């Protein structure tokens, strides 16, 4: 029998493999930054509210916006009674979760602080429906 030969050099063809498995450590930035906790993420979920619309998006620390759902989209806006109420935030959370799962993203951090999540009904409903649809939030920053 011939001896097994192993590759002496390994080339990772998927640079985001550790990221997708949840093993990559988020960038921590510099030691003396005031807002380093806000920048220590790989994926971050934001809910943006304007006077007439709401936007939910998933932001990558290096590449910017990866997945987005908005009440500006005609297909979403036609199904809603109002583009700014909590029902719209709930549906944006659902739609963003489905789009994240289709993109292979299962873990994210909320961009809002704990205080904002507790005080704002829109933000809490949006994040709740993201978790219901199996997009999990990493609460501890590793």
From TrEMBL:
Keywords: Mitochondrion, Ribonucleoprotein, Ribosomal protein
Similarity remark: Belongs to the universal ribosomal protein uL18 family.
Chief subcellular location: mitochondrion
Locations listed in the record: Mitochondrion
GO MF annotation terms: 5S rRNA binding; structural constituent of ribosome
Cellular component terms (Gene Ontology): mitochondrion; ribonucleoprotein complex; ribosome
Protein name listed in UniProt: Uncharacterized protein
Gene Ontology biological process terms, A to Z: translation
